[in-house]
Write a structure and sequence with these properties.
The chain is α+β, with helices and mostly antiparallel strands. Helices cover 41% and strands 11% of the residues. The protein has a five-stranded antiparallel sheet. α1 runs parallel beside α3.
Length: 242
């Protein structure tokens, strides 16, 4: 390229004359530097997997995650990429194994918890029947009318009223309501004799639903508690031991 002002020869890529410094053409804009590559280190994910999922497999994830930033600072970009990849891989392995262990544990624990809950409800239902039998006998010995006509007569009186035949206060108000510990208690009295005395009664304890209990119970003035699995119990069912 020849300078139009002084005629000096110049290289084609020269933007200013080497002789007279005349501008030959506009200088190209500077090339913008590309932003530095962001390489994730997965450190917080590795810590979470170590604490919450599987510590033995989470530790390698933390080791690799800690190497990412140091390798970037050293200019070892390829090494940082490999460390990031390995940290991510170990995070997923720790998470997957931890999730598998959790599902296995729940598969075992939930049925055991369910059976324990049912057993507790059934034991409490039997205990409530013993309480009701004892209360009915005391009621009969106290009042000249035999056994109570309704379950609420065994319950506490309202407010500060004194106990009487309508509310003797031998059982708590929850049991007197006919429902306690996921069991429904149904009371029925026998016929009155010539003296107006109730000489018999029957009480049935049934679970609210199959998930709250599987055994059904019945008892009467004999004090014997009988049970039946999956259906209402009656006087012909086998007795239970106290």
């Amino acid at each position: 390229m020849v300078c139009p002002k002084c005629g000096a020869p110049n290289d084609d890529n020269t933007w200013k004359c080497v002789q007279c410094q005349t501008i030959l053409h506009t200088a190209p804009p500077p090339v913008a530097a590309s932003p530095p590559e962001v390489i994730p280190n997965y450190l917080w994910q590795a810590i979470v997997c170590t604490v919450c999922c599987c510590a033995p497999l989470g530790i390698p994830a933390i080791v690799y995650a800690a190497q990412v930033n140091s390798k970037v600072d050293q200019g070892d970009i390829e090494g940082a990429r490999n460390a990031s990849k390995n940290a991510k891989m170990w995070c997923w392995i720790a998470f997957g194994l931890g999730l598998a262990f959790t599902l296995i544990y729940l598969t075992i624990a939930i049925p055991k918890l369910y059976r324990s809950m049912i057993a507790a409800n059934e034991a409490q239902a039997v205990e409530s029947l013993w309480t009701l039998n004892s209360a009915a006998i005391k009621y009969s010995a106290t009042y000249a009318k035999g056994f109570p006509l309704v379950l609420s007569e065994l319950g506490p009186p309202a407010g500060n009223e004194a106990p009487d035949a309508e509310a003797v206060g031998l059982i708590d108000k929850v049991l007197a309501s006919g429902m306690k510990n996921d069991y429904v208690f149904t009371y029925s009295h026998g016929e009155k004799d010539a003296n107006g005395m109730v000489k018999a009664y029957a009480i049935y304890a049934d679970p609210i639903m199959g998930t709250t209990g599987q055994n059904h119970y019945s008892t009467d003035q004999t004090g014997i508690i009988r049970h039946e699995r999956g259906m209402p119990a009656n006087a012909q069912c086998p007795p239970i031991d106290k």
